[in-house]
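Supplementary Methods S3. Input chains for the assembly prediction are listed below.
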Amino acid sequence: DGGITQSPKYLFRKEGQNVTLSCEQNLNHDAMYWYRQDPGQGLRLIYYSQIVNDFQKGDIAEGYSVSREKKESFPLTVTSAQKNPTAFYLCASRPPGTGSYNEQFFGPGTRLTVL
Amino acid sequence: GNSVTQMEGPVTLSEEAFLTINCTYTATGYPSLFWYVQYPGEGLQLLLKATKADDKGSNKGFEATYRKETTSFHLEKGSVQVSDSAVYFCALSGRAIQGAQKLVFGQGTRLTINP
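Predicted structure tokens for the full assembly:
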């Protein structure tokens, strides 16, 4: 079955620690995305990547970093510089093409809690 | 810039009631429009989409029509079930020009259906 996997489902971090969230897809999609979701709010884009070894900042990139060394993988690191990291993090990917018609496919999410 | 506005929730209905969740948008060009659904603790799933004006997207009894004249994409269902309880997100995407296609989300509408 093709899809997107995120691990872990729940993650706890102490203040001042960096933590990395995993995102893997076997859909052969080029573009991948990271979103943050806070209660009662829509999704906000953190980073996105069109191809391997390339990524761009989204609307709320401060305190986060990413890498894209393989097509299948797009890990997100939440650094100690992120002031309010407790949130639900969603990874997504999209089939190739520059048209607007292709939807994004989402993983199950990782809930990060800072203690 | 592009934006999406959804009716505020939460929305609570009885089983078999008629559902409407309003969504209006602001965009340049000819965006595609999407409705995503999120069940508790999960990622987003595409519910339906429409890629040009007057298109009607439909799935699982839900429908939405892309109305360019009113810049709207309201979600409707004739008879809701308890299993439809979830958060619904309206989203739009424009054509990717210099970067990967980005989705712009509304803030989400929480729907609860009582038996």
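DSSP finds no helices and twelve strands in chain B. The first strand of chain B starts at residue 3 and ends at 6.
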